[in-house]
Write a structure and sequence with these properties.
The complex is a heterodimer of chains A (255) and B (471). Chain A has two domains: 115 residues, Rossmann fold; 114 residues, Rossmann fold. Helices cover 49% and strands 12% of the residues of chain A. Chain A contains 13 helices and eight strands. In chain A, strands 2-1-3-4 form a four-stranded parallel beta sheet, sandwiched between helices. In chain A, helix 12 links the parallel strand 7 and strand 8. In chain A, helix 5 runs antiparallel to helix 6 and helix 11 packs across helix 12. The N and C termini of chain A lie far apart (48 Å). Chain B is α/β, with parallel strands linked by helices. Chain B folds into three domains: 253 residues, NagB/RpiA/CoA transferase-like (Rossmann fold, 3-Layer(aba) Sandwich), CATH 3.40.50; 79 residues, no CATH class; 61 residues, no CATH class. Chain B is 51% helix and 11% strand. Chain B is globular and about 95 Å long. The termini of chain B are far apart. Classes of the chains: A alpha/beta (255), B alpha/beta (471). The interface between A and B is large, with 71 and 67 residues.
Chain lengths: 255, 471
Amino acid sequence: MPPANPPKVGLLVTCLVDLFRPSVGFAAVTLLERAGCRVTVPSQSCCGQPAWNNGDRTTAEALARTMIQAFEGCDYVVAPSGSCSGMLRKHYPELFRDDPAWAARATALADRTWELTRFLTDIMGMDTAIPGFAGTVTYHDSCSGLREMGVKEQPRRLLASLPGVDLTEMQGADVCCGFGGTFCVKYPDISTHMVTEKVEAIVATGADTLLAGDLGCLMNMAGRLSRLGHDIDVRHVAEVLAGDPDTAPIGRAEG
Amino acid sequence: MQPHSADFPARAADALTDPDLRRALTKFKTGFPVNRARAVANLPEFEALRDAAKAVKDHTLSHLDHYLEAFEARVRDSGGHVHWARDAAEARSIILRLATERDARLIAKGKSMVSEEIGLNAALEAAGIKAVETDLGEYILQIRGEVPSHIVAPALHLSKEQVAADFRRTHTHLPPDRPLDQPTDLLAEARGELRDVFLNADIGITGANFLVAETGSTIIVTNEGNGDLTQTLSRCHIVLTGIEKVVPTLADATLMLRLLARSATGQEITAYTTFSTGPRRADDPDGPREFHVVLLDNGRSALLGTEMQEVLRCIRCGACMNHCPVYHAVGGHAYGWVYPGPIGAALDPALIGVKEARHLPNASTFCGKCESVCPVKIPLPKIMHRWREVEFERRLSPPSVRQGLWAWALFAKRPRLYRLVTAIAMRVMGWMGKEGAFKSLPLAGGWTGTRDFPAPQGRTFQSLYKDRRHG
């Protein structure tokens, strides 16, 4: 059955946005509504990724069942995150491969799940973002967004539509920042080495703002940038695309 | 080879502060990955070749017994012998027996990771047989008493200055003013030493990149020609390799060859590609009088029919480690066993056990770059993930991980409780973090040791959204 017009989009808020940076969630709602969607926010906790990534299949399954039920009435599920949307799209079907009934439900949900910027452009045909933010930005490709969810030029295309936003690419924008979920605390030395290299690439662009589509990566890079004393603002790309210049950057006090 | 993978965190920490290694690992910014990208860009059908190679390997692995027996029959037809080794100890004893029966004193060796896997050199030495590595990188490592840090470029972790110093230390006949500044000087020096080894070796041992079931041929690729001299100049050629290297036909082998060098070094083809089919025939001008193939299982066949089977498609190009940010950070020795990088993280738990190797599949961000460059499309993160599940099932994960997951799941599985608790916690944390970020946090030293921790905005999205809807 084709989606209703306007389509009903369930916002997968993601834990980090829900807990740490609700402004990203509201930016996503603004963008989805601008693109002509009817947004709903089903009651939710976590997609189960921490359990999945640490090999705890039982817990991951329990959380996945709750999420599948919560979003079943939606035409689409959209997340301001490549890794959480990737969990639903790529890993939920794997999770239930031995349970045909749930596998069918998981696959049906997976097929309707998208990362925000890709959904806005490729599905809803949005080609201009909402003006309001100005600055020189550089964009980091989060690994799951890039390699699991096919997000590469979509956020860049939307950024290019904004007058006053100037994108300067960094060297190795597609190289991992070293966050990796619990990796960053299980192997902090290696993670720090990776994010330090990333910071060097960011600083070399001369950009005043770093953007990405995943809050975990952003908090990692923001934390290292500020620890090393670099005065570079860090924001989720959705905030910039929604024309929000007022919310304080990640890791900065409200002005 | 004795594994040290359980010490991964300590070995990684050492690697991160080793100035020589740091310098050596910068090679990845200009070397293999750049050359691979150029080679791939120059071959429009590269993606189609990857799919074809994956299909050939999948087919072969599904009928591995058939193709291995066909290979064995063809080797016999051409006058050679096949020996089956269930594990490293069997492989060592087969080769020791062959060497002892031939009264061998000196063995020339081409590069072989399987030889590292079974610890062959130490076993030969213990039996009073001298084995000399003839691949330049392996030769350098043998002088230093080290193991390879990379499966294609074994001495990648070293600088040419370190090698020059090693040569001066061990080649004591060298005049002090002999120049050893350039790689070509080092090569000439090693070549001079190795010439005698090639000419006097009783046995030549090589690995194999591929085995061809159709013809009973073994194939090696090198850039130095040392493999050819190793195997053609001695009386007896022993090929030591893993059972997963077999492909059905010569056409399949050439498909693999089109992918191998491009993926490994960015070359279209290596300088030497050598096919060996049986011992010297009556009208052959040269070649060994005997031809033996030792086929090693050592845990590989146990992967057949499991989700990990796909790891056996590997053609040992090293592209995964060449593109891995974790490998770039710590180098190959940190992994503590023969196969480092993403392929090691996916394969080593099968060969040395999950308990010993548990860190390797965990020390990955699942960034997926390895899978994106793998010429046979091995889903490396998926296999690493599967090993994490095995680790969790067998209760081998550290208590901190298990307890942390348990406590978190307690809330996450109850959305109403979760919303309530997180709403309170974020209010408190937001209030405490009014400066914008925390310089340190209890229980989060892994993060705050080197990074500030951004404070939450204060309210959760779900509570704000509910207020907005009802407000």
